[in-house]
């Protein structure tokens, strides 16, 4: 082994140890407004998480608290006030990073009624709206709700499709969603095996098939970021950086 081989190996090891998300620039899926969902609990925790994301090279954060009728009855006003408090504290601490607020809407009958009534919905950017479903069973009104969003001129983003068991073996439904031009957003953590082996393999398949339009950290707390720092050990870390993602355009 030559000294050049040692240098190359050392360089490779270092790249595995240091997570960089400069290539992504904008994180469009996280839970950083304190105390309003299952994400950050305090303002101090929120600031700590934001500082870590900034340290990875993230330039802008669009945080997306849950809106779920039975658990997190957040409103645009609650989210806007939470963002203002975060922005003020970041300014006070001279932490230079842009943070905006949107939402991750749980797809159920209550959400469907919001759409039908023309209620204000928070978008990630322009008409892009982030939605999620339960993990086990396909919602009975899934396609109907997505169609109604499209009628109202929204572009649906399906959050972490790799985590939905009902999609794993339903290639027809996956294709139906893609045919409707629903954007798929995967969680970076899925590629670390953080959720399950099945989610990791499905995420890898979606990447191989060039199905992914957006990626996000889905950051809730420090444990999420601790696990995320193992991402460079994934063989898909470099593949992610080659995808034609929309993150930079948000």
Automatic annotation (TrEMBL):
Record keywords: Hydrolase
A GO term for molecular function: manganese ion binding
EC number: 3.1.3.48
InterPro entries: Caps_polysacc_synth_CpsB/CapC, Pol/histidinol_Pase-like
Enzyme class at the top of the EC tree: hydrolase
Domain of life where this protein originates: Bacteria
Catalytic activity: O-phospho-L-tyrosyl-[protein] + H2O = L-tyrosyl-[protein] + phosphate
Family: Belongs to the metallo-dependent hydrolases superfamily. CpsB/CapC family.
Protein's name according to its UniProt entry: protein-tyrosine-phosphatase
Organism: Belliella baltica (strain DSM 15883 / CIP 108006 / LMG 21964 / BA134)
Source species taxonomy: Bacteria, Pseudomonadati, Bacteroidota, Cytophagia, Cytophagales
């Amino acid at each position: 082994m030559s000294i050049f081989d040692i240098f190359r190996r050392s360089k490779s090891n270092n790249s595995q140890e240091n997570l960089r998300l400069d290539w992504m620039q904008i994180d469009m899926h996280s839970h950083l407004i304190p105390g309003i969902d299952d994400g950050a609990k305090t303002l101090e925790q929120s600031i700590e998480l934001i500082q870590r994301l900034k340290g990875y090279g993230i330039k802008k954060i669009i945080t997306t608290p849950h809106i779920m009728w039975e658990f997190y009855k957040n409103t645009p006003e609650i989210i806007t006030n939470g963002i203002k408090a975060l922005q003020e504290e970041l300014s006070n601490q001279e932490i230079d990073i842009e943070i905006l607020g949107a939402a991750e809407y749980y797809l159920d009958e209550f959400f469907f009624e919001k759409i039908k009534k023309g209620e204000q919905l928070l978008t990630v950017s322009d008409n892009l709206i982030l939605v999620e479903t339960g993990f086990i069973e396909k919602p009975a009104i899934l396609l109907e709700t997505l169609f109604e969003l499209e009628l109202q001129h929204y572009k649906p983003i399906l959050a972490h499709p790799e985590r939905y068991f009902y999609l794993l073996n339903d290639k027809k439904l996956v294709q139906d969603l893609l045919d409707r031009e629903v954007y798929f957003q995967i969680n970076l953590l899925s590629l670390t095996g953080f959720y399950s082996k099945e989610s990791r393999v499905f995420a890898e398949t979606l990447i191989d098939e060039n199905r992914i339009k957006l990626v996000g950290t889905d950051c809730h707390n420090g444990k999420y970021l601790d696990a995320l720092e193992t991402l460079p050990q994934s063989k898909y870390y470099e593949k992610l950086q080659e995808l034609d993602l929309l993150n930079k355009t948000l």
